[in-house]
Amino acid sequence: LAPGARLNPHRSVLGTGNYDINVIVAALQGLGLGLVWWDKRRSLEQLALGHILGFILNVPSKVSLGFLTFPFHRKHWVAIRELHGIFYNLDSKLRAPVPIGGEAELREFLRDVLSQGLSELFLVVSRSVEDAGTWLRPE
């Protein structure tokens, strides 16, 4: 995204990954997918889950070095995906994918995460769903 830049403005200065949303958007667009920011003032009941391919959360994460934990947070990306009717937390900090449950449990999980201050939610959708806005249930 920044081929002429000496330092990548879309990545952590420390080189630890931590890519910004522009990298995720570009990667998804390369796959023919779109990304929609979820306004957390809306009710999660408005999500048309059948039209959403997956979810990406950006959540605060504690910074630690061995046993030492620092008093600040950095942002961490977490993916959520449905498989055979069960939604899974695919957080890379977990040893393995963790089942969240069905639609009701997913909404409760997202509600809990979004209530923790600086968390953000993004919806991964097809381009046609993005263009038509059908990731949102009609009112």
Automatic annotation (TrEMBL):
<dbReference type="GO" id="GO:0004843">
    <property type="term" value="F:cysteine-type deubiquitinase activity"/>
</dbReference>
<keyword id="KW-0472">Membrane</keyword>
<dbReference type="Pfam" id="PF02099">
    <property type="entry name" value="Josephin"/>
</dbReference>
<keyword id="KW-1133">Transmembrane helix</keyword>
<dbReference type="GO" id="GO:0016579">
    <property type="term" value="P:protein deubiquitination"/>
</dbReference>
<dbReference type="InterPro" id="IPR040053">
    <property type="entry name" value="JOSD1/2"/>
</dbReference>
<protein>
    <recommendedName>
        <fullName>Josephin-2</fullName>
        <ecNumber>3.4.19.12</ecNumber>
    </recommendedName>
</protein>
<keyword id="KW-0812">Transmembrane</keyword>
<keyword id="KW-0645">Protease</keyword>
<keyword id="KW-0963">Cytoplasm</keyword>
<feature type="domain" description="Josephin">
    <location>
        <begin position="1"/>
        <end position="139"/>
    </location>
</feature>
<comment type="function">
    <text>Cleaves 'Lys-63'-linked poly-ubiquitin chains, and with lesser efficiency 'Lys-48'-linked poly-ubiquitin chains (in vitro). May act as a deubiquitinating enzyme.</text>
</comment>
<feature type="transmembrane region" description="Helical">
    <location>
        <begin position="21"/>
        <end position="38"/>
    </location>
</feature>
<dbReference type="InterPro" id="IPR006155">
    <property type="entry name" value="Josephin"/>
</dbReference>
<keyword id="KW-0833">Ubl conjugation pathway</keyword>
<keyword id="KW-0378">Hydrolase</keyword>
<dbReference type="GO" id="GO:0006508">
    <property type="term" value="P:proteolysis"/>
</dbReference>
<dbReference type="GO" id="GO:0005829">
    <property type="term" value="C:cytosol"/>
</dbReference>
